[in-house]
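Incident review: delayed structure delivery

Summary: a single-chain prediction request sat in the queue longer than the usual turnaround. Root cause was a stuck worker, restarted by the on-call engineer. No data loss occurred. The affected request and its eventual output are reproduced below so the record is complete for anyone auditing the incident later.

Affected input:
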Amino acid sequence: MTKPISIAAVLAMILCAGTALAKTKPCKGCYCTVSATNVNFGNYDALTKPTLYSTGTVAVSCGTDTVGDVMSYQVELNWGKKGKNPREMSGGKDALTYNLYTNATYSTIWADGKNGSVVVTDSYTFTTLCCENRNYTDYGRLDGGQNVSPGVYVDDIVVTVSW
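Output delivered after worker restart:
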Protein backbone atom coordinates (compact mmCIF):
# COMPACT_ATOMS: atom_id res chain seq x y z
CA MET A 1 0.00 0.00 0.00
CA THR A 2 1.31 3.44 -0.86
CA LYS A 3 0.66 6.49 1.26
CA PRO A 4 0.34 9.77 -0.63
CA ILE A 5 2.46 12.71 0.32
CA SER A 6 0.65 16.03 0.25
CA ILE A 7 2.85 18.88 -0.89
CA ALA A 8 2.48 22.57 -1.63
CA ALA A 9 4.80 25.48 -2.23
CA VAL A 10 3.00 28.31 -0.53
CA LEU A 11 3.16 31.81 -1.95
CA ALA A 12 1.78 33.24 1.24
CA MET A 13 3.89 36.19 2.31
CA ILE A 14 3.48 39.29 0.20
CA LEU A 15 5.57 42.48 0.30
CA CYS A 16 5.40 45.70 -1.69
CA ALA A 17 8.19 48.21 -1.72
CA GLY A 18 8.04 51.67 -3.19
CA THR A 19 11.71 51.80 -4.08
CA ALA A 20 12.61 53.39 -7.39
CA LEU A 21 14.39 51.06 -9.77
CA ALA A 22 17.56 52.10 -11.52
CA LYS A 23 17.16 53.82 -14.90
CA THR A 24 13.52 54.74 -14.26
CA LYS A 25 11.98 57.96 -13.04
CA PRO A 26 10.15 57.20 -9.80
CA CYS A 27 6.40 57.19 -10.10
CA LYS A 28 5.71 59.39 -7.07
CA GLY A 29 1.95 58.87 -6.90
CA CYS A 30 2.01 55.17 -7.72
CA TYR A 31 0.95 52.33 -5.48
CA CYS A 32 0.66 48.57 -5.92
CA THR A 33 -0.88 45.57 -4.29
CA VAL A 34 0.17 41.98 -4.86
CA SER A 35 -1.47 38.63 -4.25
CA ALA A 36 -0.54 35.07 -5.10
CA THR A 37 -2.08 31.64 -5.44
CA ASN A 38 -0.40 28.54 -4.05
CA VAL A 39 1.58 26.15 -6.19
CA ASN A 40 0.15 22.79 -5.13
CA PHE A 41 1.89 19.70 -6.47
CA GLY A 42 -0.76 17.33 -5.11
CA ASN A 43 0.30 13.89 -3.93
CA TYR A 44 3.80 12.53 -4.48
CA ASP A 45 4.15 8.76 -4.72
CA ALA A 46 7.41 7.87 -2.98
CA LEU A 47 7.42 4.44 -4.66
CA THR A 48 7.22 5.55 -8.30
CA LYS A 49 8.87 8.94 -7.59
CA PRO A 50 7.41 10.90 -10.52
CA THR A 51 8.31 14.46 -11.53
CA LEU A 52 5.37 16.71 -10.66
CA TYR A 53 4.32 20.00 -12.23
CA SER A 54 1.98 22.74 -11.07
CA THR A 55 1.34 26.44 -11.61
CA GLY A 56 0.40 29.42 -9.51
CA THR A 57 -0.23 33.08 -10.20
CA VAL A 58 1.29 36.27 -8.87
CA ALA A 59 -1.14 39.15 -9.44
CA VAL A 60 0.09 42.76 -9.32
CA SER A 61 -2.36 45.66 -9.37
CA CYS A 62 -1.02 49.22 -9.56
CA GLY A 63 -2.56 52.66 -9.66
CA THR A 64 -1.43 56.28 -9.73
CA ASP A 65 -2.63 59.78 -8.98
CA THR A 66 -1.52 61.06 -12.43
CA VAL A 67 -2.54 59.67 -15.83
CA GLY A 68 0.57 59.38 -18.00
CA ASP A 69 2.84 58.20 -15.16
CA VAL A 70 5.21 55.43 -16.19
CA MET A 71 5.32 52.43 -13.88
CA SER A 72 8.32 50.11 -13.94
CA TYR A 73 8.64 47.36 -11.37
CA GLN A 74 10.19 44.00 -10.66
CA VAL A 75 8.65 40.97 -8.99
CA GLU A 76 11.02 38.90 -6.89
CA LEU A 77 10.45 35.55 -5.19
CA ASN A 78 12.70 34.56 -2.33
CA TRP A 79 14.33 31.13 -2.05
CA GLY A 80 11.88 29.89 0.60
CA LYS A 81 12.49 28.88 4.20
CA LYS A 82 15.81 27.16 3.46
CA GLY A 83 17.07 30.10 1.41
CA LYS A 84 18.86 28.08 -1.25
CA ASN A 85 18.67 26.72 -4.79
CA PRO A 86 16.96 24.36 -5.29
CA ARG A 87 14.14 25.33 -2.97
CA GLU A 88 13.05 22.79 -0.36
CA MET A 89 9.68 21.85 1.08
CA SER A 90 10.03 20.53 4.61
CA GLY A 91 8.01 17.65 5.99
CA GLY A 92 9.21 16.36 9.33
CA LYS A 93 12.76 15.07 9.02
CA ASP A 94 12.68 14.95 5.20
CA ALA A 95 12.63 17.56 2.47
CA LEU A 96 11.53 17.59 -1.18
CA THR A 97 13.43 19.82 -3.60
CA TYR A 98 11.57 21.87 -6.18
CA ASN A 99 11.80 25.15 -8.00
CA LEU A 100 9.63 27.89 -9.49
CA TYR A 101 10.16 29.08 -13.05
CA THR A 102 9.07 31.92 -15.29
CA ASN A 103 8.24 29.65 -18.23
CA ALA A 104 6.62 26.32 -19.08
CA THR A 105 9.92 24.93 -20.35
CA TYR A 106 11.30 25.15 -16.79
CA SER A 107 14.50 26.76 -18.01
CA THR A 108 14.49 30.07 -16.08
CA ILE A 109 14.28 30.04 -12.28
CA TRP A 110 12.18 32.85 -10.81
CA ALA A 111 13.85 34.20 -7.65
CA ASP A 112 16.01 37.18 -6.71
CA GLY A 113 18.23 37.53 -9.78
CA LYS A 114 21.13 35.71 -8.12
CA ASN A 115 22.51 32.19 -8.53
CA GLY A 116 21.32 31.94 -12.12
CA SER A 117 17.79 33.14 -11.38
CA VAL A 118 15.82 36.08 -12.76
CA VAL A 119 13.23 38.55 -11.50
CA VAL A 120 10.14 39.35 -13.54
CA THR A 121 10.02 42.95 -14.75
CA ASP A 122 7.23 44.98 -16.30
CA SER A 123 6.65 48.55 -17.40
CA TYR A 124 3.70 50.54 -18.73
CA THR A 125 2.20 54.01 -18.95
CA PHE A 126 -1.01 54.62 -17.00
CA THR A 127 -3.97 55.56 -19.19
CA THR A 128 -6.33 55.62 -16.17
CA LEU A 129 -5.79 56.33 -12.49
CA CYS A 130 -6.70 52.86 -11.29
CA CYS A 131 -5.88 50.14 -11.88
CA GLU A 132 -3.49 48.29 -14.14
CA ASN A 133 -3.72 44.56 -13.36
CA ARG A 134 -1.06 42.10 -14.45
CA ASN A 135 -0.89 38.36 -13.80
CA TYR A 136 2.34 36.36 -13.91
CA THR A 137 2.31 32.58 -13.95
CA ASP A 138 4.88 30.77 -11.86
CA TYR A 139 5.64 27.25 -13.09
CA GLY A 140 6.53 24.75 -10.39
CA ARG A 141 8.50 21.55 -10.91
CA LEU A 142 9.26 18.96 -8.25
CA ASP A 143 11.89 16.59 -9.61
CA GLY A 144 11.17 12.88 -9.33
CA GLY A 145 13.39 10.28 -7.77
CA GLN A 146 13.23 11.70 -4.24
CA ASN A 147 12.90 9.19 -1.43
CA VAL A 148 10.91 10.72 1.43
CA SER A 149 8.56 9.65 4.21
CA PRO A 150 4.80 10.21 3.96
CA GLY A 151 3.69 13.57 5.31
CA VAL A 152 2.76 17.12 4.46
CA TYR A 153 5.56 19.09 2.77
CA VAL A 154 5.37 22.89 2.59
CA ASP A 155 7.50 25.95 1.96
CA ASP A 156 6.79 29.68 2.23
CA ILE A 157 7.77 32.02 -0.57
CA VAL A 158 7.93 35.79 -0.08
CA VAL A 159 6.85 37.85 -3.10
CA THR A 160 8.34 41.37 -3.28
CA VAL A 161 7.30 44.03 -5.78
CA SER A 162 9.73 46.94 -6.08
CA TRP A 163 9.29 50.13 -8.12
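Verification: The chain has one domain: 5-162.
Action items: add queue-age alerting; document worker restart procedure.
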